[in-house]
Design brief:
With about 190 residues, the chain is α+β, with helices and mostly antiparallel strands. It is about 30% helix and about 20% strand. It is built from 5 helices and 8 strands; from the N terminus they run αβββαβαββαββα. Strands 3-2-1-4-8-7-6-5 form an 8-stranded mixed beta sheet, sandwiched between helices. The structure holds zinc ion.
């Protein structure tokens, strides 16, 4: 997990201590990156345990989890098989998000096969774009209401970044890379 985060950082996806990452262990305990850590030097020790409401618990209760931890909790609740969630601030999803709000529609790209259930590039992929609301309760409601559109295991937050998840770390990484790549293709193509 740390290696995946370092690689994302090296690609410019987590500037200035931003972004957050989580996983669920074999006891279904959620671990999330704590707030304010530079992702170029992140270590395994920088993950802390949180409750299903996104509050730090146990020996970590005095440490502050990422402010967006509640989004991770909601996704684990909505999709119980999920084990890994990655949140990136890659530049192309940020740039394209306002142009395509409230949903990013793509068709005809080979890499769409990187999304779950996509056997062919001819299928249209629809990725929801949410407005960048800091009210986490409101955001939770929005996610629940648009659950049907989350079947590609990812979404975009306008002028902010993306979330992607999977049952394995490599699946989560694949969904994130697929969305980042498709955002880049569409952005450069629509100039
Ligand atoms: Zn963020």
């Amino acid at each position: 997990m740390v290696m995946v985060i370092n690689n994302l950082h090296n690609k410019g996806c987590s500037p200035a201590t931003s972004t957050n990452y989580s996983f669920k262990d074999n006891d279904n305990q959620i671990w999330v990156t704590r707030s304010g850590i530079d992702k170029s030097i992140i270590r395994v020790d920088d993950f802390i345990t949180i409750s299903s409401e996104g509050k730090s618990i146990g020996e970590y209760k005095d440490l502050r989890p990422s402010a967006e931890s509640i989004i991770h909790c909601v996704l684990y609740e909505m999709f119980p098989e999920t084990k890994f969630i990655l949140h990136s601030h890659g530049i192309f999803p940020v740039l394209i998000s306002s142009r395509v709000y409230p949903e990013f529609r793509i068709q005809g790209y080979e890499l769409q096969k990187g999304f779950p259930h996509h056997q062919t590039h001819q299928t249209e992929s629809i990725i929801p774009v949410f407005c960048n609301n800091q009210d986490m309760e409101y955001f939770k409601k929005e996610l629940m209401e648009r659950k049907r559109q989350l079947n590609n295991n990812c979404f975009i937050i306008e002028k902010h970044g993306i979330y992607a998840w999977g049952n394995t770390l490599l699946d989560a990484k694949k969904h994130l890379e697929t969305l980042e790549y498709l955002c880049q293709c569409e952005f450069l193509n629509s100039k």
